[in-house]
Specification:
binds pyridoxal-5'-phosphate, Aspartate Aminotransferase, domain 1, alpha/beta, Aspartate Aminotransferase, domain 2, single chain, 7-stranded mixed β-sheet, 3-stranded antiparallel β-sheet, 360 residues
C-alpha cells in the first residue's frame, strides 16, 4: 500500500493495482522482451493492446456501433478547436452552455471558427450551479450544443443528461469520464483528456457519431480531421502508445470493480462522506448548489483564509497531498476520482475535523 493520498485534479491518482501491473511489465511485456514504450505502433503486440483498449472502453460505456472511438493527442484543449472545425458542417453557429472556467475556454476557441450563441450561463451566481434545461435558449439551426459535464475547477457537475432534440449534444467529460453511466446514444460527441480519470496525460478520447464526421472544410489539417483519424484507427501518425496501454489497464481494472454502475455507487459514497461533513460544519464551506455538486472535484474554503497555509501544511504532514485549490478560485479542492479509495476520503474528513477542533 502506498503511504499517501493524492487529491490532485490532474494528472491524478491511478489505481495502485494498475501501477503495479505496469511496473511488473515494464521491462518485458508478456514475454515479448520489450517494454510497451519500445514497441512499434504497427507491430502485432501494440496493435493488440490498442484494439483491446478500444473494445474494453466500448463495453464499459456501452458505445453503440455507429460511434467511432478516437485515441488522439493535444488534450481536451485541442478539441475545443477540433470540434467546431469538424462539427459546424457549414452551419453558421453553435450553442454553448456556460458553467465555468472550462466552458469559457471552449467558447473562446469556438469563436475562432464560427458564431457562438450562449444558450445559458451561470455567471449571474459566479458559476455555482447548472442552469436548468427549461431556461436554455437553444437555436434549432445550431450545428451542435456544447456542455461541460463537470467543471473541474468550480466543482459543478451535470447530475442529469440534457435533451437537445435533433441538434447534436457535445460533451466535455474530461473530469467525469467513466465515473457514472452515460447514455452515449444521447450525444453526438463525447470527449475528454485522459489524465483526470483514465490514465496518463498525452491521450485524449473522442467518441463521435459516424454521421457527424466527414464534413470538415477543405484546409482542415489532416490530424484534426475526425474522418481521417477514424478511417486510420487513430494511427495517422504515432499514437501515444504508452498512455493508451495504461488507459487499457485502467479499463480492465474498472471491469474488475464491477463496471461503471459499481464505480458510480462508490463515487456517490465517497462524495457524500465529504459533502455531509462540509454541510455539518460552519468552519468549512462549499458554494455550489447541492443538486449540482461534483462527485469528482470538491472545492471548499476555510472560514478564515489566513489559515489556508497551516491547513495545507498539516494535511501534508498526514500524507494528504495536492489539496490546494485552483489558482483562480483559491481555497482548497479535493479531487476524488475513481481511483481514490474511500480510505483517502475518510482520512481527509478526519483531518478536517481535527483541524477544526484545534483552530476553529
Ligand atoms: C482539464 C480539463 C480540460 C483541459 O484538458 P487538457 O487535456 O489539459 O487540454 C478541459 N476540460 C475539462 C473539463 C478539464 O477538466
Amino acid at each position: 500500500m502506498r503511504q499517501i493520498f493524492n487529491f490532485s485534479a490532474g494528472p491524478a491518482v491511478l489505481p495502485e493495482e494498475v501501477l503495479q501491473q505496469a511496473a511488473a511489465e515494464m521491462l518485458d511485456w508478456r514475454g515479448s522482451g520489450q517494454s510497451v514504450m519500445e514497441m512499434s505502433h504497427r507491430g502485432k503486440e501494440y496493435m493488440g493492446i490498442h484494439a483491446q483498449a478500444e473494445a474494453d472502453l466500448r463495453e464499459l460505456m456501452g458505445i453503440p456501433s455507429n460511434y467511432k472511438v478516437l485515441f488522439l493527442q493535444g488534450g481536451a484543449t485541442m478539441q475545443f478547436a477540433a470540434i467546431p472545425m469538424n462539427l459546424l458542417r457549414g452551419k453558421a453557429s453553435a450553442d454553448y452552455v456556460h458553467t465555468g472556467e472550462w466552458s469559457k475556454k471552449a467558447i473562446k476557441e469556438a469563436k475562432l471558427f464560427g458564431k457562438v450563441n450562449i444558450a445559458a450561463s451561470a455567471e449571474d451566481r459566479n458559476f455555482t450551479y447548472v442552469p436548468a434545461r427549461s431556461t436554455w435558449k437553444l437555436d434549432p439551426q445550431a450545428a451542435y450544443v456544447h456542455v461541460c459535464m463537470n467543471e473541474t475547477i468550480g466543482g459543478v457537475e451535470f447530475n442529469w443528461e440534457p435533451e437537445t432534440g435533433e441538434v447534436p449534444l457535445v460533451a466535455d467529460v474530461s473530469s467525469t469520464f467513466l465515473s457514472r453511466p452515460v447514455d452515449v446514444s444521447k450525444y453526438g460527441l463525447i470527449y475528454g483528456g485522459a489524465q483526470k480519470n483514465i490514465g496518463p496525460a498525452g491521450l485524449t478520447i473522442v467518441i463521435v457519431r459516424e454521421d457527424l464526421i466527414g464534413h470538415a472544410p477543405s484546409g482542415t489539417p489532416t490530424m484534426l480531421d475526425f474522418k481521417q483519424q477514424a478511417d486510420n484507427d487513430s494511427m495517422l501518425n504515432t499514437p501515444p502508445t504508452y498512455s493508451i496501454y495504461i488507459a487499457g489497464l485502467v479499463f480492465q481494472w474498472l471491469k474488475r470493480q464491477g463496471g461503471i454502475a459499481a464505480i458510480e455507487k462508490r463515487n456517490i459514497e465517497k462524495s457524500s462522506l465529504l459533502y455531509d461533513y462540509l454541510d455539518a460544519t460552519g468552519f468549512y464551506a462549499n458554494p455550489v448548489d447541492k443538486a449540482d455538486r461534483s462527485r469528482m472535484n470538491v472545492p471548499f474554503t476555510l472560514k478564515d483564509a489566513a489559515l489556508d497555509d497551516d491547513f495545507l501544511a498539516g494535511a501534508k504532514a498526514r500524507n494528504l497531498l495536492q489539496l490546494k485549490g485552483h489558482r483562480s478560485v483559491g481555497g482548497m479542492r479535493a479531487s476524488i476520482y475513481n481511483a481514490m479509495p474511500i480510505e483517502g476520503v475518510r482520512a481527509l474528513v478526519d483531518y478536517m475535523r481535527d483541524f477544526e477542533k484545534q483552530r476553529g
